[in-house]
Amino acid sequence: MELQIGTDEFSRALYRAQGIVEKKSTMPILASVLLEATEDGRLRVSAFDLEIGVTGTHPCEVRTGGSVALKHKELYDIVRSLPEKTLVMRREANNRVRLTSGAAEFNIVGQPAEDYPPFPRAEKVSFVPVDPTALLEMIEKTQFAISADETRHNLNGVFFETGEGNVRMVATDGHRLSLVQRPLEGQFNLKRGVIVPRKGLLELRRLLSEDQTGTCELGFTETSGVFRRGDVTMVMRLIDGTFPDYMQVIPKEADRTITVDRPRLLDTLKRMSLLSSDRSTNAVRFELQEGSLKVTSQNPDLGDAKEEIPVTYKGLPLQIGFNARYLMDVLQVVDTAQMNVELCDELSPGVLKPTGDPGAGARYTAVIMPMRI
Fold first, then answer.
1. How many Å apart are CA 102 and CA 117, to the nearest integer?
2. What CATH number is given for 250-368 in this structure?
3. The dihedral of CA 80, 212, 191, 357: what is its sign?
4. Rg of the chain over all Cα atoms, to the nearest angstrom
5. Which DSSP symbol is given to 287?
6. CATH 3.10.150.10 residue ranges in the chain?
């Protein structure tokens, strides 16, 4: 195996594998990437941790075909530090690899390609074209609400389901819920919704963040989700479990609806949470009156803080506590100027929705459970 490839191109391929290669695994080879030089002048770079895999082909000058597995971290660090715009890679005896660029030369210990676990095949997948910008937005509007509790594995991902001409993604950790719906034509042929794991979702976000032009494709089998764009394919094993009936959590009607300036409320919450008594919960109190919302926080060791902001509201007063972090997570992923906050009483969840319907079946809803303060 011998080839010449651009260092930037190779570095980009290794960057994609960064979050997938297993650093601490009972299978040491999972810390490596599989490199395959094909006779048609491409280098295939694959990473697979038995749950999530990403593979892509990259243009290069192949002098001799072949394959080898190399430790990812060291290889990535080396490639990023090379002095020239191209490098030559040659596999020698015992899977040792010589890597040269200008005056720099590295000899790296490799492993046989045959020892690398086989990459999952994405066969019989019904692919649907999706807008990468819309898919990235849906991920960013839900990922923060995924549960980190490993004992509730069915909440360790985002629920993905399709409806009449739309797709919906939902995440919840039991204390909050985030739901986003966007129009999408195409048949995923899903009998029911699927749960996409957190790690797979974050790797998908990494791929989408690279380039948001053109189209990409998404498809599902009974056990896997498959993303494809150009020469890059990502396969992830879905979570086997039943997602809770999230519609039961969303209050049907609210007694009180507040319209508030989103950036102003976000800035206020950032300030008020500085003196919250519990840094893990960032508890703040809302005191709602006609035309105004007072946000307060207190800490027995430091003092207290309060700030009043104008809101559009006519109705009975209400006092209710919330985790400021949960509110800020929602306000940071929405780009509208104003938000509607729907409340019933001090024991019922608050519902946040962007003001103004974007139309065409698009909507966003966040539900946050109250706190006793």
1. 34
2. 3.10.150.10
3. positive
4. 25
5. E
6. 2-115, 128-247, 250-368
Tell me the C-alpha distance between 318 and 306, whole Å. Answer: 16
Helix (H) / strand (E) element for 111: namely: strand 104-111
Cα distances (Å, whole numbers) of residue 29 to 34, 37, 70: 9, 19, 8
Cut 0.70: pTM above it: yes
Q: Exposed, middle or buried, 103 (CB in 10 Å: 0-12/13-18/19+)?
A: exposed
> DSSP 3-state assignment of 251?
coil
Superfamily of domain 128-247 in CATH is: DNA Polymerase III, subunit A, domain 2 (3.10.150.10)
Q: Sheet containing 338-343: give its strands across.
A: 194-197, 157-162, 166-172, 176-183, 363-368, 350-354, 338-343, 256-261
Q: How far apart are CA 295 and CA 18, in angstroms?
A: 42
Closest of 74, 63, 83 to residue 14, by C-alpha = 74
**Amino acid at site 73:** K
225 three-state secondary structure: strand
- Which tokens hold the place of 30? 């999972």
Please check whether residue 368 is in contact with residue 327, taking contact to mean a CB–CB distance below 8 angstroms. yes
Burial class of residue 64 in the structure, from the number of CB atoms within 10 Å of its CB (0-12 exposed, 13-18 middle, 19+ buried) = exposed
Tens digits of residue pLDDT in 182-213? 998 888 888 889 999 999 999 999 999 987 77
* Per-residue pLDDT at 367: 97
Looking at residue 361, what is its pLDDT? Answer: 63
pLDDT (tens digit, 9 = 90+) per residue, 240-263? 999 999 999 898 888 899 999 999
Here the tokens at position 47 are 């990473």
- CATH fold label, 2-115: DNA Polymerase III; Chain A, domain 2 (3.10.150)
Q: Considering only CA atoms, which of 340, 364, 359 is closest in space to residue 261?
A: 340
Q: 295 and 269 in contact (C-beta within 8 Å)? A: yes
